[in-house]
Design a protein that fits this description.
There is one protein chain. By secondary structure, the chain is mostly beta strands. Among the domains are: 108 residues, Immunoglobulins (Immunoglobulin-like), CATH 2.60.40; 130 residues, no CATH class.
Length: 757
């Protein structure tokens, strides 16, 4: 029993050795060369060596190791020399072509630079080989690779393909972009199903007539003037003849299996009646000189037709194509589209750059989902109503002035109607599922109707006449909002844009810088203001100086000019964005206006120069002084730490602040003044509190921690100027506060001290 087991093991070992040796080059196996299985293979190209090592999982592979290499992907690595691959005799798949993943990289970073492929001559087990985009001129080394089924050689410098004549197992061959003129060596390759010959100077295609297995043939940019005689190819379903000089397409007749033909960029002027093409489904005839398409009427199997960039005026022949679902007629001279009315299965329709005036003929296309009719002469779009399947429509660059009430469009999600003459958009009211709306470059001033279109994610309103955008504050799904080149009012900058940003976190919002003085403090309509206020604002984007108007009469402040010396308080330099009026009366409403001014120099015909003023007239703002003295109403604080306007820069807490100078280290207690707006994910947009307020719009948040030393929390403010809080018989101090609902019981202390303590 033991001897039997030993004998079996010895036979197994002998068999294993035989299998391993079977993969060695003949010279090594029979002792005709100097290499042995243990010898390290020499690779002239270090990149190739590294890729082989990675594939095999070994370092410095030996001859014996190489027989285990079955496939190798080395596309776009800059390889120049294939020495060493001759030992990979079991290789079945080898990719040394172009690396497409980063197509925009320069060629040297996504191709190889191989010239000599002789090391591949003995790799007789190869079934798939890609040598695309190299520098190969001689392919004689491929003549013995009879197992090849797929061979890719596009973008090389090959002229002679005689080495391919015996590769009878080829089913796919790509020779695009070489210098091949003679196709005779291919005549016996009857198993080829896919043949790519584009961008070669081919004059004679007769050798292709014997390739009876051919299903796909590409002959674009080969200089052909006629369609090759291919009627003997019973399986040919796809034919690409793009970019040739063909004028007559009658040669397509008699191809019973043909399904798709592309003839873009030829010299075709008409479409004759074609026969014997019962399966023709897709026809591409764009970029020709076609005026007559009457020959299409009999091609009832057509589902896709592309006739872009021709000279077509009449499309009546299309009425006989009931199976069409894709029709592209861009860039023609079409005025009448009634020929489309009988296409019940049409889904995609492209009519850009024609001479169409209305869309009434489309009203019965119940399956139409995508339509483009940009750059026409359309004035009326009422024909869209009833297109119940319509999802996307492009109506840009037409002559539309008003949008009528569009009804029965339950699936319409995207409208592009930019560059028209639109003033009225009320007709959009019913399109509540709209996700994308482009109304740029029109004459729109009222966007009230958009308040109901709350599904919008992309909204382009640029270059219109819009001032009021308050209706957009109800939107909460916006990803993109473009408001550039609109005369937005001050409320847009002060209130609406911040509200939109808060309701649509992360949205991209585009708008012009505010030309007016904005971010005024105190805010418009503020009450309980001290009788010695400091009026502040943020300078407009284009301002050079500020004109200040102030008084008790609203009409005078709103309408007066610099000539009124009582209301007009003078011109201030750009960096002077504050005004201190005289001591005011208690319980009185005051009005103020800031005009932003810049200057433009105009040269007259006589060479003299005039300086003209450009004025951005501000709104009239109001505030009312208090019936009492205001200690701090917290209305003037902002998020601008750099300008010293943060609340914790006045009310000192336990943290203090580091800028601007002079900084303050804090009081060392457990207090924190203001909300945290800097930590990622914080729910707060402002340092001050804007929801819990007593009067006005802001209050001061105060966080405390009494569990650590010094076991109490304190904040204080020191007024730089003396404060007399006893004026006019004042005898009561009021402090309004609200504690958080989850606070425990505790004591709140208030202390008022003068400079003597």
């Amino acid at each position: 029993m033991t001897r039997a087991r030993i004998s079996l093991s010895m036979r197994a070992i002998s068999l294993l050795i035989a299998v391993c040796l079977a993969g060695f080059p003949a010279e090594a196996r029979h002792g005709g060369g100097t290499e042995t299985p243990e010898d390290t293979v020499y690779f002239a190209d270090p990149i190739l060596k590294a890729l082989v090592e990675a594939q095999l999982g070994v370092t410095d592979p030996t001859v014996a190791d190489m027989v285990f290499l079955k496939e190798l992907s080395a596309a776009g690595r800059g390889i120049t020399d294939l020495t060493g691959l001759e030992y990979a005799t079991n290789l079945a798949s080898l990719n040394l072509g172009e690396f497409f993943y980063y197509w925009n990289w320069p060629p040297e970073l996504r191709t190889n630079q191989i010239q000599d492929i002789s090391p591949l001559s003995g790799l007789t087990r190869l079934k798939s080989l890609d040598l695309s985009n190299n520098q190969i001129t001689d392919i004689s080394a491929l003549s013995g690779l009879t197992a090849l089924e797929t061979l890719t050689l596009y973008v090389n410098q090959i002229t002679d393909i005689s080495a391919l004549s015996g590769l009878s197992n080829l089913t796919s061959l790509d020779l695009e972009h070489n210098q091949i003129t003679d196709l005779t060596p291919l005549s016996g390759l009857t198993n080829i199903k896919s043949l790519e010959l584009s961008s070669n100077p081919i004059a004679d295609t007769s050798a292709l007539s014997t390739l009876t297995g051919l299903e796909s043939l590409t002959l674009s940019r080969t200089g052909l003037t006629t369609i090759p005689a291919l009627t003997d190819l019973p399986n040919l379903a796809f034919l690409d003849l793009v970019g040739n000089q063909i004028t007559d397409i009658s040669g397509l007749s008699g191809m019973p299996a043909i399904e798709t033909v592309t003839l873009f960029g030829n010299r075709i002027t008409s479409i004759p009646a074609l026969s014997g093409v019962p399966n023709l489904q897709a026809l591409g005839l764009g970029v020709n000189q076609i005026t007559d398409i009457s020959g299409l009427s009999g091609l009832t199997s057509l589902t896709i037709v592309d006739l872009t960039n021709n000279q077509i005026t009449a499309i009546g022949a299309l009425t006989d194509l009931p199976n069409l679902f894709y029709m592209d007629l861009q860039n023609n001279q079409i005025t009448d589209i009634s020929g489309l009315a009988g296409l019940p299965n049409l889904i995609f329709l492209f009519l850009n750059r024609n001479r169409i005036e209305n869309l009434d003929a489309l009203s019965d296309l119940s399956k139409l989902r995508f339509m483009e009719v940009a750059t026409n002469q359309i004035t009326d779009i009422s024909g869209l109503s009833g297109l119940t399947s319509l999802e996307t429509v492009d109506l840009s660059y037409n002559q539309i002035e008003a949008i009528p009430a569009l009804t029965d469009l339950p699936n319409l999600r995207s409208i592009d109607i930019k560059n028209n003459r639109i003033t009225d958009i009320t007709g959009l009211a019913g399109l509540t599922v709209l996700v994308s709306l482009d109304l740029a470059n029109n004459d729109i001033n009222d966007v009230t109707v958009l308040s109901g279109l709350t599904s919008l994610r992309s909204l382009n309103l640029s270059n219109n006449l819009i001032e009021d955008i308050s209706v957009l504050t109800s939107h909460q799904k916006l990803d993109l909002l473009d408001l550039l080149y609109n005369p937005l009012d001050e409320n847009a900058y002060v209130y609406n844009l911040p509200a939109i940003e808060a309701s649509n976190p992360g949205t991209e919002i585009y708008y012009d810088p505010c030309p007016w003085a904005c971010e005024r403090r105190p805010y418009a309509g503020a009450g309980d203001i001290t009788n010695t206020p400091v009026l502040r604002w943020t300078a407009g984007a284009w301002a050079a100086v500020h004109d200040v108007y102030f008084g008790r009469d609203k009409e005078l402040v709103a309408n007066t000019t610099t000539a009124d010396t009582e209301i007009y308080r003078g011109r201030q330099e750009l960096d002077m964005v504050m005004y201190e009026p005289e001591t005011l009366d208690w319980g009185t409403t005051y009005y103020w206006r800031i005009d932003e001014v810049n200057f433009i120099t105009v040269e007259a015909e006589d060479g003299t120069e005039d300086v003209n003023e450009i004025v951005w007239k501000g709104q009239t703002w109001s505030f009312t002084t208090a019936e009492f003295i205001v200690g701090d109403d917290f209305e003037l604080y902002t998020n601008n730490r750099d300008a010293g306007q943060a609340v914790f820069q006045e009310w000192i807490d336990g943290l203090g602040f580091s800028k601007p100078e002079p900084n303050n280290p804090g009081n060392g207690t457990g207090s924190i003044v203001g909300h945290d707006i800097w930590t990622q994910g914080t729910p707060h947009k402002t340092i001050v509190e804007t929801s819990i307020v007593h009067a006005g719009r802001q209050s001061m948040p105060l966080y405390y921690n009494n569990t650590d030393e010094p076991y109490y929390s304190q904040t204080y403010r020191t007024w730089p100027a003396p404060q007399d809080w006893t004026l006019n018989g004042m005898d009561t101090f009021e402090l309004y506060f609200r504690g958080a609902s989850d606070n425990g019981p505790g004591q709140l202390y208030l202390s008022i001290e003068d400079d003597a303590g």
